[in-house]
Amino acid sequence: MKTIEDFNFNGKKVCVRVDFNVPFDADYNITDDNRIRKAIPTIQKIMADGGAVILMSHLGRPKGKPSEKYSLKHILKHLSQLLKKPVKFADDAISIETKKMADTLQAGEILLLENLRFYEQEMQGDIDFAAKLASLGDFYVNDAFGAAHRAHASTAIMAKFFDNQKCFGYLMESELANAQKILLNPIHPMTAIIGGAKVSDKILIIDHLLDFADNIIIGGGMAYTFIKALGGSIGNSLCEDERLELTLEILAKAAKKGVKILLPKDSIIADKYSADANTLLSDSNNIPPNWMGLDIGPVAQKDCANLLAESKTILWNGPMGVFEMKSFAQGTKAVADAVVSATEKGSFSLIGGGDSAAAIAKFNYTNRVSYVSTGGGALLKYFEGKTLPGVAAITG
User: Fold this and answer.
1) Is 64 labeled as catalytic in the residue annotation?
2) Is residue 217 located within the same domain as residue 324?
C-alpha cells in the first residue's frame, strides 16, 4: 500500500480526517494537545508540497446537535500557534459557504471544519453526508487513528469517493506499524499488562492475547473478579459476578497454552471510594467485609517489575488502580517505572492510549517508552483481532 510519502500534493485540495478530540478545562484551555501535535507532520507535508488542507474532526459527543461546549473553534488559536500560520474556520461542515471557502482555498492554506458530530449523519455513516464532505477536496488522507474503529461518514465512507487518491497520514502509519510489532512479530518474552475496571471491557483482547503473549499481568478493578472466581474474599471490591465462570475459562485456556497470568497478591484497600478514605494493606484474596481494593500492593508491584524486567515486548492497556487519587497511584507508578526501565534496556513498549497514556503523561514518561498510542478504543479493537473500518477504507 502506498504511503503519504508516495504522493506529491502540489495543487491539490486535501481532505484530512484528523482526531482533534482533546480535553479542555472550564475555560476551554486544552489540557492535553498530544493528538493535535501528532497530526502536525501530515499537515506540514501537504503544505510543503504546495497543497491546501481541509481538516475534519469530531470533538466529544454532542449527539448530532451544535453545541458551544463541543465547538472546534476552541482549538483554532492553539492549532494556528503549532502550525505557525493562521487557520481558517468554517462554522458548518457542509454549507454552501463552506464549499465556497474550500473552492477558494489557496496552496499552503488550511481550513478547519466545525465538529462533524454536530450532524447525526456523521455517526450514521450516511453516504450523502460523506459525499458532501468529499466534494470539498480532490484527495483524502485519514490520520485519525483514535476514530479508526468507527464506521462513520468521515472515517470509513468518504474514502469511497477518492479511488486511488487516498492514503494514511503519518500518524495512522505509525500507529499501525507499532501495533503490528506486537500483533505480527513480537520479540519474546512478550508481556501484556491489562488493567481497568471491568473484565467485560477487556475479555476479547485477553482472549486474543493468549495466542501470542507469554505473560499477562491483570490489574485494576477487573483483577478482583478473577480473585473471587478462584475462591478469594474481596470485600466490597469491584466484581462482575456474572463473569466469574468466564474468568475461570480464561485461566484454564491460559494454562493450556502455557501463558502465565499474574494476579496481584496484595492490595491497597480502602473503606470507601474516596481520596480521603482510610487505607490498609491486605492480601488480595482476604479483603475484609466493607473494604475494597483500589490499588495493587508492594508485593504485586515487585512481581510485576520482575516479570517486566525479563520481557522484550510490552503492551500496556489499563491502570493498576485508581491512579487519579494520590493514595492509589503507586501501583500504576511502579508499573510505569518498570516499563520505562525495560524500555531503556532495549525492550519495545507500546502504551495503549486512554487511561494508560494519561498515566504515562502524569508521570512524565511519555518520551521514555517506545510508543504511546493516540487511540484507546481503536487500539483495543485492533488487538481484539477486529478489522478497523477506518483502516479497511484505505487498504480496501
Assistant:
1) no
2) yes
Chain centroid offset of residue 238 CA: 24
Q: Could you give the number of structural domains in the chain?
A: 2
Residue 35 bears catalytic tag: yes
What range does the domain containing 149 cover?
4-172
Contact between 342 and 349 (Cβ < 8 Å): yes
Same structural domain, 226 and 148: no
Secondary structure (DSSP) of 220-256: STTHHHHHHHTT-EETT----GGGHHHHHHHHHHHHH
Judge if 330 and 190 occupy the same domain: yes
Question: Mean pLDDT, consecutive 10-residue segments, the chain of 396 residues?
Answer: 91 98 92 92 98 97 92 97 97 96 97 97 97 98 95 97 96 95 93 90 90 96 96 96 95 97 98 96 97 98 98 96 94 97 98 86 93 88 90 92
- Are 278 and 316 found together in one domain? yes
* The one-letter amino acid at 89: F
Counting beta carbons within 10 angstroms of the beta carbon of residue 228, is it exposed (0 to 12), middle (13 to 18) or buried (19 or more)? buried
This prediction's pTM: 0.90
Residue 117 shares a structural domain with residue 225: no
Catalytic residue among 17, 35, 202, 228: 35
Do 146 and 54 lie in a common domain? yes
Helices (H), ranges, the chain: 34-49, 76-83, 96-103, 120-124, 127-134, 170-183, 199-209, 223-229, 244-257, 298-309, 330-344, 354-362, 376-383, 389-395
Cell output for 210 = 493468549
368 catalytic? Reply is no
Are the C-beta atoms of residues 376 and 353 closer than 8 Å to each other? yes
258 in catalytic set: no
From the candidates 354, 375, 376, 390, give the one annotated as an active-site residue. 354
